[in-house]
Structure formats: C-alpha cells, structure tokens
Design a protein that fits this description.
It contains two helices and eight strands; from the N terminus they run βαββββαβββ. The protein is α/β, with parallel strands linked by helices. It has one domain: 2,3-Dihydroxybiphenyl 1,2-Dioxygenase, domain 1.
Amino acid sequence: MSTERKECNPVVWFEIPVADMARAAAFYESVFRWPIKVEYMDDGKVMGWFPASETGYGASGALVKDNGYEPMPSGMVIYFSEPDIDGTLECVKKSGGNVILEKTHIGKYGFYAWFEDTEGNRIGLHAMA
C-alpha cells in the first residue's frame, strides 16, 4: 500500500442523519435550491442524494435515514460553501431551521455561520471575504 498522498482536499463524502426524510429533503431543497433525489434502498435505508459532479471541486453526500444514524446538534459540523451567508440564513429561518451563530468574520479565512436544520443537526456555512 502506498503512503504517498496526492494533493487534494481530504473529504470525499458526507452523510447527514435525518429522522424524517421528506421534511429534511424539503428543507435542503428550499434553503439551497438543490434537488435532493430520494432513494429507498433494499435494506430499508433511505438516502437523499445531494447533487454531485465528477469534474467539480469539493465533496458531495447524502441525507440518510437508517439505524445508527442519529441527528444531533453537538456532533461533527459540515460546512457548505455559500457566498450569500446572510440570505441563506434568512432562508433557513423561513424553511423551519434555526440560526445558531450569525455570520462571523474570521479574518483572512472569510466568514462562517451555523444553523440547525429541521432534524436537529448543526450545519456550517462558509464564504471567503
């Protein structure tokens, strides 16, 4: 096994736990205007796929409803790149989510904010200055 690592961003996939797939998919579609493709797997797992591009940068992922997936506000934080943080936070509020941390300046690294989705997960937004 090679120990050499190619230059890249280390995250390749993420999964966000949900309790109610229809509610969660509607929330993310409303906030980000991305289509969420819901698929029912043979083993009972339900996945809501975020858009993905084989030629784009960054990672894609899915909403997941299954045993062992529990939404929580104090776990890992996933950050979505979002140039209009203020507008997105307004959309979060209108779509049933809660703002945890308003847009915050972090010097040369731009801005970030946190919100809680309809399932109870803490999600981050990031924008460069």
